């Protein structure tokens, strides 16, 4: 039983919801490896991808997920549409709603914007990232990757490193991994830690070597270039020196520790190319594969809860 | 103003001037209070009689911080609609803020606003004028001319004057003009772009935030300047616990310093923004519960002097946006009393202290008559039932903009009547 109308964040999900999504996604991983990848679960359904922030991989992943389930998928190019002419989010939502979509996938630069939109439409809304708040499908695909690699999604020590303060991926992952009863660490310069982070149920490290010791999973985050010029960190090279993941630092983690990254990566900034491309440790490309499967699972579960009268 | 004599009988009088809270009545004639009777009510002899039915009769509220959209944004609030909202809320005097379009930095604009208000509003309207030209924070305005035109104080409203040299000049110069300098104590380099208070909660919501210390930092600067210049200074809104000890020290040192707090910061906290409801987006942002409690206690205990509504009307469009992009502010004239009564019903505040902060002290600070029930005082009165329960429906508000955070909340306290200069301006 998946009793949700929308997927707005990990916060609203129970551990059993998360397991249910991952179980279903496991099946889609297999399907996606077959020559015939289509099922008719969403036949007749309309999915609109509304991305206020440019995104290649997340949008492509949602598009592919919808199409493989048989939905009609439309991408709204917000950058060139009426939004540029000053139309508000709510008016755009009402306009789209009149076209009777069944599933609306939304990414927006403001925290809470996707929840606001979900109050104004009759369809299921999927949060594809809202500001610094949540990015639930990223956390779910990370969870699936970990579960498949480690054989379990509990009692693991997982370090999340980088720009925690501005990362919705970090927030969703902290929520998800805590709900599944793991030990979560965050590693970042003090200027990139959100205030009150010590009350998130995580262990906080500013020393990367300390934080990596004994970890099963090392999750790196992308850092925006504009934060590396003195605003939060003095320079790229100092950041890489202290918080960039290198083979030497990774050696402090468990021998079988895996390395993750939500992409796109900045090689030589937050992660050394040698580590990123080490097929024994890096599961970064696997994460992309899991992304399509997890999104198929979520789309299917939400579509099953749609009222056909809408 | 002349009006027929009125006798108020059977009231529970609240007089912050003397601290009296007990049965009694009033005789009003010629727009002023002619006699105050404590205990048994006197007989009526040919005058209009208002039987108060045992409800509270108190001096009308004097609200020091009200934004009106004239000139420039009448669609948000006009003096007529603000006046109606004030009367319905038991506010008999309010002070308009200079953040208009154009801002009130010129004596002619001050005169225009006061003339418009006299024509359109049935309550007493005063105005503050800008402290710096164009609210730009760079050049001081003509303090003397602005005061002569009728401004009761000088402020840049929500704009904090970042430049200490400019602020120092304004405060030093005010010793010659006698102007009251009202400032918004927020360090703007920290608060710019922020829409929540830094902490676990804002971090979980992923909202841009300002540390609570931004208030203390600016307040400490201002108090240092007040000490060195001898200016009369009023901090418009204190909302954090950290700002209280500098304020207490300044008062102990005998500086001419006062401070206010808004009805929202007295009754709401940061958890109220949980659903990203833009009606809870305020400046300064809502604080932690410990801060709310501390400022409420400081107000009840005498450290904070004044309660304001910080009435800031915003149209529907400005609030129908994601939280971070929505406009700040909330209307408050009509919710002033029921909001404050929450503290009274919680046993945290007496009615006499409430009216000291809401009527007597603001009147004193601004040099206005009123705020007390005594012979010769203006007959600006509010009659209300402090217990009457209701669920607030924002569409029933008289203010032109309906952006109240109390929408659909349970409130207690209904205004039954408001009189200004002996004229009844509201009947509830």
Walkthrough of the structure:
The complex is a heterodimer of chains A (310) and B (428). In chain A, the strands form 2 sheets. Chain A has a 5-stranded parallel β-sheet. Chain A has a 4-stranded parallel β-sheet with strand order 2-1-3-4. In chain A, 37% of the residues lie in helices and 15% in strands. In chain A, strand 3 (103-108), helix 4 and strand 4 (124-130) form a beta-alpha-beta unit. In chain A, helix 1 packs across helix 5, helix 2 (57-68) packs across helix 11 (284-304) and helix 5 crosses helix 11. By secondary structure, chain A is of the alpha/beta class. Chain A is globular. In chain B, the strands form 4 sheets. In chain B, strands 1, 2, 3, 4, 5, 17, 18 and 19 form an 8-stranded mixed β-sheet that branches. Chain B has helices at residues 79-89, 107-120, 143-148, 164-177, 188-191, 200-205, 213-229, 244-252, 263-267, 289-301, 316-319, 336-345, 351-366; strands spanning 6-15, 20-29, 32-38, 48-51, 56-59, 61-66, 91-96, 124-127, 129-130, 154-155, 180-183, 196-197, 209-210, 232-235, 257-262, 306-308, 381-391, 410-420, 423-427. Chain B contains 13 helices and 19 strands. With 428 residues, chain B is an alpha/beta fold. The two termini of chain B are 23 Å apart. Classes of the chains: A alpha/beta (310), B alpha/beta (428). At the A-B interface, helix 4 of A face helix 6 of B.
Order of helices and strands of chain A: HEHEHEHEHEHEEHEHHEHH
Largest sheet of chain B: 8 strands, mixed
- Overall outline of chain B: globular
Given the structure, what is the number of helices of chain A?
11
Low-confidence stretches of chain A: none
What's the pLDDT, averaged over the residues of chain A? 94
Strand percentage of chain A: 5-15%
Kindly state the number of beta strands of chain B. Answer: 19
Residue ranges of chain B: pLDDT <50 for 5 or more in a row? none
The coarse silhouette of chain A is: globular
Quaternary class: heterodimer
Q: How big a fraction of the residues of chain B is strand?
A: 15-25%
Helix content of chain B: 25-40%
User: What is the name of the CATH topology of chain B?
Assistant: TIM Barrel
The CATH architecture of chain B is Alpha-Beta Barrel
Largest protein interface, residues of each chain: A-B, 24 and 21 residues
Number of helices, where a helix is a run of at least 4 consecutive DSSP H or I residues of chain B: 13
- Spatial separation of the terminal alpha carbons of chain B: 23 Å
Which structural class should the secondary elements of chain A be placed in?
A: alpha/beta
Helix content of chain A: 25-40%
Structure summary, number of beta strands of chain A: 9
């Amino acid at each position: 039983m998946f009793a949700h109308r929308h997927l707005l964040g990990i916060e609203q999900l129970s551990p059993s919801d998360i397991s249910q999504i991952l179980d279903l996604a496991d099946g889609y991983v297999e399907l996606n490896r077959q020559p015939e990848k289509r099922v008719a679960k969403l036949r007749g359904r309309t999915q609109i991808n509304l991305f206020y922030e440019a995104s290649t991989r997340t949008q492509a992943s949602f598009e592919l997920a919808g199409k493989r389930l048989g939905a009609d998928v439309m991408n709204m190019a917000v950058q060139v549409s009426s939004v540029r002419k000053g139309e508000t989010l709510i008016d755009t939502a009402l306009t789209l709603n009149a076209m009777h979509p069944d599933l609306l996938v939304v990414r927006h630069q403001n925290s809470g914007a996707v929840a606001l939109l979900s109050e104004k439409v009759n369809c299921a809304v999927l949060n594809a990232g809202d500001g610094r708040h949540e990015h639930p499908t990223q956390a779910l695909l990370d969870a699936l990757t970990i579960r498949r690699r480690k054989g379990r999604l509990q009692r693991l020590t997982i370090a999340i490193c980088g720009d925690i303060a501005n990362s919705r991926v970090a927030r969703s992952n902290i929520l998800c991994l805590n709900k599944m009863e793991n030990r979560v660490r965050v590693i970042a310069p003090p200027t990139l830690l959100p205030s009150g982070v010590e009350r998130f149920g995580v262990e906080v490290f500013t020393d990367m070597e300390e934080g990596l010791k004994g970890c099963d999973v090392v999750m790196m985050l992308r850092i925006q270039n504009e934060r590396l010029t003195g605003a939060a960190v003095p320079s790229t090279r100092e950041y890489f020196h202290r918080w960039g993941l290198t083979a030497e630092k990774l050696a402090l983690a468990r021998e079988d520790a895996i390395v993750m990254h939500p992409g796109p990566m900045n090689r030589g900034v937050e992660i050394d190319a040698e580590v990123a491309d080490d097929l024994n440790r890096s599961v970064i490309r696997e994460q992309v594969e899991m992304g399509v499967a997890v999104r198929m699972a979520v789309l299917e579960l939400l579509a099953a809860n749609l009222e056909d009268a809408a | 103003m002349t009006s027929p004599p009125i006798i108020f009988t059977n009231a529970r009088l609240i007089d912050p001037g003397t601290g009296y809270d007990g049965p009694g009545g009033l005789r009003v004639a010629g727009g002023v209070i002619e006699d105050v009777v404590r205990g048994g009510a006197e007989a009526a002899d040919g005058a209009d009689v208002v039987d108060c039915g045992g409800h509270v009769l108190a001096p009308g509220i004097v609200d020091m911080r009200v934004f009106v959209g004239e000139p420039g944004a009448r669609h948000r609030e006009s003096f007529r609609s603000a006046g109606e909202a004030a009367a319905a809320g038991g506010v008999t005097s309010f002070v308009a803020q200079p953040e208009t379009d154009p801002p009130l930095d010129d004596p002619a604009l001050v005169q225009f606003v006061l003339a418009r208000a006299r024509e359109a509003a049935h309550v007493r309207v005063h105005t503050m004028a800008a402290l710096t030209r164009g609210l730009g924070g760079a050049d001081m305005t003509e303090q003397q001319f602005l005061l002569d035109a009728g401004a009761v104080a000088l402020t840049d409203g929500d704009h904090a004057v970042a430049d200490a040299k400019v602020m120092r000049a304004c405060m030093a110069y005010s010793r010659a003009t006698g102007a009251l300098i009202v400032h918004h104590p927020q360090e703007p380099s920290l608060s710019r772009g922020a829409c929540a208070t830094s902490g676990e909660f804002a971090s979980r919501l992923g909202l841009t935030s300002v540390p609570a210390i931004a208030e203390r930092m600016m307040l400490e600067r201002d108090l240092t300047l007040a000490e060195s210049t001898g200016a009369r200074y009023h901090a418009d809104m204190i909302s954090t616990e950290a700002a209280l000890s500098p304020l207490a020290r300044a008062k102990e040192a005998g500086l001419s310093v006062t401070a206010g707090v808004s009805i929202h910061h007295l009754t709401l906290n940061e958890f109220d923004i949980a659903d990203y409801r833009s009606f809870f987006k305020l400046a300064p942002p809502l604080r932690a519960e410990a801060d709310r409690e501390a400022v409420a206690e400081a107000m009840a205990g005498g450290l904070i002097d004044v309660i304001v509504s910080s009435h800031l009307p915003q149209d529907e469009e400005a609030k129908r946006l994601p939280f971070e992009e929505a406009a700040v502010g909330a209307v408050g004239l009509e919710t002033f009393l029921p909001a404050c009564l929450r503290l009274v019903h919680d046993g945290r505040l007496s009615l006499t202290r409430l009216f000291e902060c809401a009527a007597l002290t603001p009147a004193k600070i601004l040099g206005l008559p009123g705020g007390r029930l005594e012979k010769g005082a203006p007959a600006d009165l509010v009659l209300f039932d402090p217990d009457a329960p209701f669920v607030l429906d924002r569409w029933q508000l008289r203010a032109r903009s309906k952006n109240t955070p109390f929408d659909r909340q349970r409130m207690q306290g209904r205004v039954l009547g408001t009189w200004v200069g002996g004229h009844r301006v509201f009947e509830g």
